[in-house]
Amino acid sequence: MRIGRLYFINKIFLQHGLDELIPSRWQPWYVRLARKLIFWIPNEHKDKTPGERITLALQELGPVFIKFGQMMSTRRDLLPPAIANELARLQDKVAPFPSEEATARVLSSLNIPKLDLIFSSFDEQPLASASIAQVHAAVLKENGKDVVVKVLRPGIRKTIDADMELMFTLAGVLQKWLPDGKRLRPVEVVTEYQKTLVDELDLMRESANGIQLRRNFEGSESLYVPEIFSDYCRHDVLVMERIYGIPISNINTLLEQNTNMKKLAERGVEVFFTQVFRDSFFHADMHPGNIFVSREHPDNPQYIAIDFGIVGTLNREDKRYLAENFIAFFNRDYRKVAQLHADSGWVPADTNIDEFEMAIRTVCEPIFQKPLAEISFGNVLLQLFNTARRFNMVVQPQLVLLQKTLLYVEGLGRQLYPQLDLWQTAKPFLENWMKQQIGVKAMFSKVKDNLPFWSEKLPEMPDLLYDSLKQVKAMPLQISRNHQELTRLQLEAAKANHWVIAGATFIVVAAILPIYVPQWWVPVISGAVGVGCWIQGWRHSHPASS
Fold first, then answer.
1. Would 117 be classed as within a structural domain?
2. What is the model's pTM?
3. 353 carries a ligand binding annotation
4. Are residues 359 and 506 in the same domain?
């Protein structure tokens, strides 16, 4: 199965002429020879641009590759604009599957004979189509609300399993043979990626994520989350409020309605850090196809988020560590950044902190106090990678989702308002969050949170205190008894040791005596005495059973 899938991937790449996009200086002579003699599949899309060919190839390869293309579409600092624009089509313009299959799946999942029992109207023409599912516009019969019905693609699980099986094989090879394989931990990273993809295939999980996110941002001016109609949600069907916002990638429309682009970009950063540090629950698939802007109040713009199949969470230690790192970066305290990495175990304990500090300073210092338009993040990422490799930094798979989401946020910020100072926008938020975690205010907040627990335990406190005082009073006597018992056991062990040594001596003598003494009963007596000594030694070593 892996070989078949690998052949299919290679075939798609060659059919779309993607090998022609690789500079010839990167292709050794034997690769070019193999291309002509073995992999002779011709380019069937010579009339198309490189961006169109890449997009079509990723579509044919399936959701794992489509999602990679979605992420890369936001990285306009790493890709030419023409290719980035074509990859943006993967966000919601993937080729749809037949409407008859979508309708049949909805009827089967909701266990109804006809759609008009639940929907007063249902548009069989897909409203949008993505890598995992497609959506149809509808109107709920019970309340007349406009909704979208999301339906999973048929056979999607089999395709994903095949791709993940191949990715695990490749990751295993990379981890074993690459010099940085163990440090980069590709197998763990692929495992984390597989978990997120499999979770995305369960629309019941997505509905729960959407409900949670909506509750977290109830009444927020920064982010609106559509209502989920959970009564009509199943594992392969989801019904959600339809929104009529402007796609975040439609910059011209946003400008035409005089949207405050600076505020919109700053709110994107605010929404990201709020989800991560306040809620520990963040939307982890924030590509432009899932983000819209409300048409109301362009001077006070509000985001609208959809597609909650992939969310990330962080524990308290990860949050604290990340916040301290961010703040140290913003304050240019590279010594603290280096020390935090060592304390967390992300770099070996014997790392030279002075050298590590200087390496981080060299990478990060040039990017501060510059707008996004003047920062080459591709170059920064390359330098950070080299620094990580130099100091044997270990990749943390649990933070892969966060890193990917941060890439999305930075990519969106670059498109909306290139002059945005990402660092200065985020710094006040993180400093405020840290103040809430430490100090007097944080202490009272934690006491308040734990008040129900302590109010329940308070009636038991007198009894617990009395028992504790009794134990303290009896402790000297107990310590004396324990000491006496330990002394007795040590004496018994010493006696047992003496008896065993004596027994061993008599046994050795019994073995040697026949050579020098002709009487048979002499060595027998010596042996019997030796066995007796061993028995006596065993009794002293097991006094309770003697």
1. no
2. 0.66
3. no
4. no
